[in-house]
Amino acid sequence: MTIVRTGSIDANATYEPSQVSTNASAQPGCYFMAPVVWHWDGPLSIGVSIPDSPAWAHRVIYRALQHWNIEQTLFEQKYRIEGDRYTFFESDSSSASVQISYGMISNDFLGLATPLNSTSGEVNAVNIGINTNLVQVTDNRTSELKLYRIALHELGHVLGLGDIIYPEGDIMNGWGKVLLNLTQRVDISTLDLYVINLLSTVSGNLVFPWFICKPSNIPYSTPVG
Predict the structure, then answer these.
(1) Where do runs of H (alpha helix) occur along the chain?
(2) Where are the domains of the chain?
(3) Is residue 21 a contact partner of residue 166, using CB atoms and an 8 Å limit?
(4) Domain 17-213 adopts which CATH fold?
(5) Which of 1, 125, 127, 217 has the most CB atoms at less than 10 Å from its CB?
């Protein structure tokens, strides 16, 4: 299957949320603005190396891995979607496909997923940097929730999902500080899971689209379960 580009949006334009919300293609059932960043071409079982310290941060990131696994399973079972399923697992190996580290990140990013060994949009290894400020704070519920959301977001990038700016409750919303607005419910959506499932069926000739819309028989929700 080949994903094809649709729509005629200027790739260099900047879109404010108010503009996007009035666009017919920017409804909760559709990804708008660079929905795909790459195609994961590595093993379906993806090893992730997580720093051991601090222990509470390790625990939070591990929980994020499991949440992606569970939501993919629930999505496939509920909507009888065929396709490959990606499974994250923790690996202490230096050769793990995904390496997570803490440090200061340029441009004040909270997290940054950087592909390695990329060939024509195909990626089989990713480094995830998480801003050290997120893990140097006291272990508490607020700190855990912020780190959890950033980890979920960056792991979504590993699977090929890009940043979107609508809807606000989607974990892949990368607009401003949406992920850190703890009064806003943010989670993996059925749209995220549909796009990941679609990407799992792709082989060659990948053209990154501006829009991807889920089928009408799959309601938009966060999360599936």
Answers:
(1) 17-21, 55-79, 141-158, 190-200
(2) 17-213
(3) yes
(4) Collagenase (Catalytic Domain) (3.40.390)
(5) 125
